[in-house]
Amino acid sequence: MGKSFVAPEKYPEAVVKQQSSGSSISVSFRDDTMFHKLTEHGLVAEYPIRYQVGGGMEGSSFFIQLRNYLFESPLSWYNAFGWDLSPGYESRSVIEFERPITKECLFCHASRARFDDPDGRHLNGTPTSIGCERCHGPSGEHVRHPSSTNIVNPSKLAGPARKSICEQCHLEGNTRVLNPGKDWTDFRAGEPAEDVFTTFVLTGERQGEQIPLASEVEQFAQSRCAQMSKGKLWCGTCHNPHADHRSRAAEIRAICTSCHQKPSPATHPASLTECTSCHMPTNGKTTIAHASNTDHRILRPGEQPPDEGKKLKLSAWRQPRQNFQQRNLGIAELRLSRQDYQDLWSDGGDLLLSLGAPSHDDSDIVFSLTAFYLDSGDLPRALEFARRAVELSPQSAVRTLTLARILETSGADDKAEQQFVKAIALNPSWKEPYGRLTMFYVRRNKFEEAIKVLDRYLTWNPNEILFHEWRKQILSQENAGTGSRLPSQPAIPPTR
Fold first, then answer.
1. Where are the domains of the chain?
2. Cβ–Cβ contacts within 10 Å for residue 143, how many?
């Protein structure tokens, strides 16, 4: 954990090419500073790498910092492979340093990550690696008066309070939903995570041969060893972040044989010195290329877990307080793809609508219902809820941009234009508002205004590539007197 968020270490220099975009990304060092340089369509963008992210067990990703905003590099290091594209960039037609790093992203990767905007994108301060307080709670009183009574010892806890210490970062699930009025930084070791947020897991479907990389907690819950131990066997039994594990196989064998004292001689010859290769094998078929997962179900060789059945279900890993259960589940279900999970998605809308008018003071509910009505084709109701969402969170660029899109679709051009401009002002680092406002002007043959929007972003970040290409296209269209040939949707991350 002490390496979860650090300055870049020394790695081999290299050049990685990506076929679908025709681009190449190089890694180099100058004066001990790592640089990632993107060459694409005759344009070059080079950035110094500010942070290396990840504990390093599977590899590392890298962040650039533009003013007070963080973005992920499209190039990552994989221990089992070397340099390759970061997850999600493999088939992109245009590669950019554009994936924003939000407060929710850094919750699991850094300490002291403070953001001062409602969307959690504008960094305020300097994050550090995961520190002692993430597992042991606030340390001020303990520093002043060291005592075992004023610091959290995870091994002395039980139930959700103990499990939450590990699960806060190692239980990713399908999505997480904050409770009303809560922030990611509100979580404190020694308290159940559900006091702050609910983690939802999708069950009842087979993921094919690939498994999510961070799924150890879900797997461990299926283990008969964990179930039969009634809480005695937990993450900390095998994982001690303070220990120097020089003989890992012997450590695990000692833990296993403390219960399994007389394993069958037929299947456990005396020559066997470790347990994990048979009972916790490594699976390289994960959802992230070049990464592997240790099977924490602790199965017998050849044993298969019970069939989950065919009915899809999104469930809380542990339920929050009763008055949040319906709310949080509804929000979580509406985050699913409508196309892939129609029934669950529709159920999410029904759950939130059944809460009635009092829930319309809850910004997250209102914003979720905005998307629900928009995707359902009910434009008047979508507009009503979009306006309410902006009223509740007027400094949110995400909510402002959503309102702008709905206003444009409704034909309210002047009001839509105002909201596009406002979204840019609220978050000048975010490409999508610039892209959508550019297309708004191009569709109306307002080429000069479109160029001004692109220039505004290019002044903020001159290394951007896609908007340079758009600028050339718009100028050629303006000179030829033709309409827009830009894509109907920006080739940049959509509104969350």
1. 5-131
2. 10
Render pLDDT for 2-44 as a digit per residue (tens, 0 to 9): 789 999 999 999 999 998 888 999 999 999 999 999 999 889 9
Long-range contacts of 173-176 (CB under 8 A, 24+ apart): 173/199, 173/200, 173/201, 173/202, 173/218, 173/317, 174/200, 174/201, 174/202, 174/314, 174/332, 174/336, 175/199, 175/200, 175/332, 175/335, 176/104, 176/200
Give the pLDDT score at 1. 76
Q: Which of 49, 125, 64 is nearest to 99 (CA)?
A: 64
How far is the C-alpha of 136 from the C-alpha of 151, rounded, in Å? 6
Please, what is the end-to-end C-alpha distance for the chain in angstroms? Answer: 29
Predicted local distance difference test score (pLDDT) of residue 284: 79
| Backbone dihedral angles phi then psi of residue 145, each to the nearest 5 degrees | -140, 80
Task: Give residue 471's pLDDT.
Answer: 95
Distance in angstroms (rounded) separating the CA atoms of residues 311 and 108: 31
pLDDT score at 485: 53
- Rounded to whole angstroms, the Cα distance separating 161 from 113 reads 23
**Alpha carbon distances (Å) from 391 to 370, 395, 403:** 13, 9, 11
- CA dist 125 and 115 (Å) reads 8
* Selection from 388, 439, 393, 392 nearest residue 417 by Cα: 439
Q: Which residues contact residue 292 at a Cβ distance below 8 angstroms, ignoring those fewer than 6 apart? A: 58, 80, 282, 283, 284, 286
DSSP letter for each residue of 418-457: HHHHHHHHH-TT-HHHHHHHHHHHHHTT-HHHHHHHHHHH
Centre a 10 Å sphere on the Cβ of residue 35 and count the other Cβ atoms it contains: 16
| Cβ count near 304 (within 10 Å) | 8
Q: Which of these, 33, 314, 52, 306, lies nearest to 176 by C-alpha position?
A: 314
Which residue blocks in 154-247 are alpha helix, DSSP H?
Answer: 159-170, 216-221, 224-229, 235-238
Query: Which stretches of the chain drop beneath a pLDDT of 50?
Result: 207, 488-496
Three-state DSSP state, 55: coil
71 phi, psi to nearest 5 deg: -140, 145
Q: What is the pLDDT of residue 440?
A: 97
pLDDT at 242: 86
Q: Distances in Å between the alpha carbon of 400 and those of 325, 370, 374, 412, 438?
A: 28, 12, 15, 15, 16
pLDDT digits (tens, 9 = 90+) for 153-183: 999 999 999 999 999 999 989 999 999 999 9
Rama region for 170: left / alpha / beta (φ>0; ψ in -120 to 50; rest): alpha
* Strand partners for 53: 5, 61
